[in-house]
Amino acid sequence: MELSVTQGSPSIPFPFSRSSSAVAAGDDASSSLVIGFFSGDAAETTLQWAGQAFWASADGVDRIVELLLLAWRGVRVTLVVPLLKLGIFISLAMTLMILVEKLAMGAVCLAVKVLRLKPERRYRWEPITADPETGNSAYPMVLVQIPMYNEREVYKLSIGAACGLEWPTDRMIIQVLDDSTDPVIKDLVEKECMKWKSKGMNIHYEVRDNRKGYKAGALKEGMKHAYVQECDYIAMFDADFQPESDFLTRTIPFLVYNPDIALVQSRWKFVNADECMLTRIQEMSLDYHFKIEQEAGSSTFAFFGFNGTAGVWRISAIEASGGWQDRTTVEDMDLAVRAGLGGWKFVYVGDIKVKSELPSTFKAYRFQQHRWSCGPANLFKKMALEIILNKAGFSKVSLFSTLSKKSVSKLKVSSWKKFYVIYSFFFVGKIVAHSVTFVFYCVVIPASVLVPEVDIPLWGVVYVPTIITLCKSVGTPSSFHLLVFWILFENVMSLHRIKAAMTGLLESGRVNEWIVTEKLGDGKKAKPSTTVEGDVETQGDEQEMEEVTEATDRPHRRFWHRFHFSELAVGLFLTVSGCYDVIYEKKGYFVYLFLQAIAFFVAGFDYVGTRMPIS
């Protein structure tokens, strides 16, 4: 007997096929054994009975398998196929949404470049110079904030770069907000601040007795100090960021001469981009974010998400928008959305670059991406209705500048801007982009191989994804040869991003998790213009600290702890789908499926990025 399942399924032969006579023989197995035993042929008869029983049991297995296959066929036709077709329809619709977004943003950025519509042409900008009569009073008071948490590897670089900014020392206050829990590191940071204070810098070292609200809480506490009331603007830098000395002289004029501008955002430049494949891939993604996404938002609706660092805010805009809030892990985006709904404008200046460090370990990158994906989704859930009703604004706001100090009515936010924030910025950018990447490319496409009744149109599998990929590759042309690796790795990370986005939308599990991105001190490869004493000694201390940390953690770590089983499971699923395509379906998807499976296995076995030395 040979069982064959029709309607699109391949023929499946069964090796345990036998004749009907074997069934009858199996029915008399017990009696044959008894007769044979008394006749002295017990051994031979026993073997004969065992063979007949084997074929009888094989017939039962055949029937069970046949029933299972018939049941699967029924479930597949009535449930799996309709659901998979629905998944394909939704995935293709989302893919088209992303395609339209990428083409629109690319067209805007191309127009800005061709027409040379730099921010200095769209807004008033003049250099600020000292007045011969009043001296430095022409310069507004600027607060430079540096929040940090156990930043032993980079604290000297960030503080030294801030103290090296070209701005009158009597018109600038530096505020170091240290939430460190390590008393040794806190002592080192405080001593560094005192060293610069002895050199004439107006620097304040601030600590608090808890970490409530994490970074948002630290920034909120920092704004309460009396000396902050003297300042008009606030420049923010994370601990691993090193601004060039002319940062303030190039950004502050936008705020001084344009009272409706609340934020000036600069671009990130990565000092360790060439360290490994992980950092190269991150550079490609972030370059696209800054060069295309931020530029397009700034040039069309004067709105984009604040990146949390390397930007300058108007303090009155922060206050008018409700200040810093810690309801999500993306306090920077929260403030930006509220300020945008209040009528304030944002300016992105891509020519101003601030040095920073990319996470080079897979563990640190995963934690960072969880926060960057979970926080926006959670904020979207909490603010969607606010955005639609535009309740985040205020009836009156005070626009302060050195040219005028007057209260004006809040600028009306257009319906187009609200639509842009809800649909383009949040829904497509933070929800759809994370969802469709994993669902379509890592679930729907491989599942369609296993369900032959379903076909995906070629334009949805090849043409549209290719156009989207090419649009995103323009951010870093020098890394175009890494495009395939970038695509495969982004698909791997989409597994974590969709889990994080769902966590944010459902407000469950790790929704409020905040883990500071690990820095390895790679910023030392590109030092700021300001010379900092004791760098060589500090480097040795850092290496010693890393060794002690690894030695402490080593006894508690088992070899399987380095495995990421969710990636391994997806890699196995893709491998099975690829093999099925090679043997039966012949759709040609196996090339992609095998490559993507390898990428998941590489990540699953933790062979991504750098690893701290064991000794």
UniProtKB/TrEMBL annotation:
<keyword id="KW-0472">Membrane</keyword>
<dbReference type="InterPro" id="IPR029044">
    <property type="entry name" value="Nucleotide-diphossugar_trans"/>
</dbReference>
<feature type="compositionally biased region" description="Acidic residues">
    <location>
        <begin position="534"/>
        <end position="543"/>
    </location>
</feature>
<dbReference type="InterPro" id="IPR001173">
    <property type="entry name" value="Glyco_trans_2-like"/>
</dbReference>
<feature type="transmembrane region" description="Helical">
    <location>
        <begin position="589"/>
        <end position="609"/>
    </location>
</feature>
<dbReference type="GO" id="GO:0047259">
    <property type="term" value="F:glucomannan 4-beta-mannosyltransferase activity"/>
</dbReference>
<feature type="domain" description="Glycosyltransferase 2-like">
    <location>
        <begin position="233"/>
        <end position="438"/>
    </location>
</feature>
<feature type="transmembrane region" description="Helical">
    <location>
        <begin position="467"/>
        <end position="489"/>
    </location>
</feature>
<feature type="transmembrane region" description="Helical">
    <location>
        <begin position="88"/>
        <end position="115"/>
    </location>
</feature>
<keyword id="KW-0328">Glycosyltransferase</keyword>
<comment type="similarity">
    <text>Belongs to the glycosyltransferase 2 family. Plant cellulose synthase-like A subfamily.</text>
</comment>
<keyword id="KW-0961">Cell wall biogenesis/degradation</keyword>
<feature type="transmembrane region" description="Helical">
    <location>
        <begin position="420"/>
        <end position="447"/>
    </location>
</feature>
<keyword id="KW-0333">Golgi apparatus</keyword>
<dbReference type="GO" id="GO:0071555">
    <property type="term" value="P:cell wall organization"/>
</dbReference>
<keyword id="KW-0812">Transmembrane</keyword>
<dbReference type="GO" id="GO:0000139">
    <property type="term" value="C:Golgi membrane"/>
</dbReference>
<keyword id="KW-0808">Transferase</keyword>
<feature type="region of interest" description="Disordered">
    <location>
        <begin position="523"/>
        <end position="543"/>
    </location>
</feature>
<keyword id="KW-1133">Transmembrane helix</keyword>
<protein>
    <recommendedName>
        <fullName>glucomannan 4-beta-mannosyltransferase</fullName>
        <ecNumber>2.4.1.32</ecNumber>
    </recommendedName>
</protein>
<dbReference type="GO" id="GO:0051753">
    <property type="term" value="F:mannan synthase activity"/>
</dbReference>
<dbReference type="Pfam" id="PF13632">
    <property type="entry name" value="Glyco_trans_2_3"/>
</dbReference>
